[in-house]
Design brief:
The structure is a single chain. The protein is an alpha+beta fold. It folds into two domains: 3-138 and 196-208, PH-domain like (Roll), CATH 2.30.29; 140-190. 35% of the residues lie in helices and 26% in strands. It contains four helices and twelve strands, in the order H-E-E-E-E-E-E-E-E-E-E-H-E-H-H-E. Strand 3 (40-44) and strand 4 (48-52) form a beta hairpin. The chain is elongated. The chain starts with a helix and ends in a 19-residue tail after the last strand. 25% of the residues are buried.
């Protein structure tokens, strides 16, 4: 199938499961990036992506978009946080994620609407800006730094475990296993999902989109 045909077919209902639409049936997504601050509404229009927080609004023409990046970026209160970053050729950048702040310790996830909106958005950008780059994961330099830290932490964890076994210090062993093991697991997950590379805008990588659970019957 040609790219043009794939673009035409990308708006099928199956691909847009969970998509939010505004009063004009345009794809939309709502995101509250900060605890203190307004909610931002993003709308995919025919030739641009527009946003508004009720006071300030703006837009990016789709044909001027230079790059799109998908990353896995866990937060302290929510470890399944995914983010899209869109950069214009002139330097302007916007981003949003699948989670929004609702209170001091409350985060609300919108996994299905986020995944559906991102699929629509990437397909529209690919059609309007054929030279746009679609980047998967973190920059190589950041990935290398985190990989080195993770390796060092794993070695330290192994050393502490051996020391605890030699001294029969079960308290230290339990602390190392719980805190260190969880940290290494989280960082390993980050490394697995954020491998630097590129992706097909019409077939987005599942590792960089939230897992959408089927609705309960």
């Amino acid at each position: 199938m040609t790219d043009a045909a794939r673009l035409a077919n990308d708006t099928s209902p199956a691909a847009d499961d969970g998509l939010w639409l505004d009063h004009e049936d345009r794809p939309t997504f709502r995101h509250k990036p900060k605890l203190i601050g307004p909610e931002i509404v993003f709308t995919l229009q025919d030739r641009e992506i527009a946003w508004s927080d009720g006071r300030v609004s703006g837009s990016l023409p789709l044909h001027q978009i230079e790059s799109v990046r998908l990353v896995f970026r866990p937060a302290n209160l929510y470890t399944s946080r995914y983010r899209i970053e869109i950069r214009q050729r002139l330097g302007k950048r916007i981003w949003f994620s699948n989670v929004s702040w609702r209170g001091m310790v409350e985060i609300e996830s919108h996994d299905a609407p986020f995944a559906a909106f991102v699929r629509r958005l990437c397909a529209a950008i690919a059609k309007a800006s054929p030279k746009a780059r679609f980047i998967a994961g973190e920059p190589a330099w950041r990935y290398a730094v985190v990989a080195a830290i993770t390796a060092g932490l794993a070695v330290s964890l192994a050393y502490l475990t051996i020391a605890a076994l030699k001294t029969t210090n079960w308290g230290l062993m339990g602390l190392v296993a719980f805190v260190g093991g969880y940290t290494v697991w989280q960082m390993s997950l980050w490394l697995r999902k954020n491998r630097p590379g590129s992706f097909d805008p019409l077939a987005l990588p599942t590792d960089l989109l939230p897992t959408v659970k089927p609705p309960r019957a």
